[in-house]
Specification:
By secondary structure, the chain is an alpha+beta fold. About 40% of the residues lie in helices and about 15% in strands. The chain has two helices and three strands; from the N terminus they run βββαα. The chain has a three-stranded antiparallel sheet.
């Protein structure tokens, strides 16, 4: 398994961290020591659990059609939005 790792100098030492997971970090006197310590930390973490992939289906835009059909305030809100948009376009046109 391969992870993107950020290695940074820090107070005369090196810190290695897994990008996207700030809790997965280790430090060492050298870049290699920091990476080695991080490798050990990652292995220990996976030994205590299981890495799984979770598929979350996305919703199509059409799934939202009619979502606000029974909302009495929606039509007025849309009219306000269009009125403001039209006023902005008219002002831009005059410039």
């Amino acid at each position: 398994m391969t992870f993107p790792i950020l290695v940074q100098p820090h107070d005369g030492r090196f810190q290695a961290s897994v990008l996207g997971s700030p809790v997965m970090a280790a430090d060492g006197a050298t870049k290699e020591e920091a990476l080695s310590a991080l490798r050990v930390s990652i292995n220990q973490r996976f030994a205590r659990g299981e890495l799984v992939l979770l598929d979350v289906p996305h919703r199509a835009v059409t799934d939202f059609a009619g979502l606000f059909k029974d909302d009495p305030t929606f039509e007025g809100m849309v009219e306000d939005i269009y009125r403001e948009r039209d006023a902005q376009k008219a002002a831009e046109f005059r410039e």
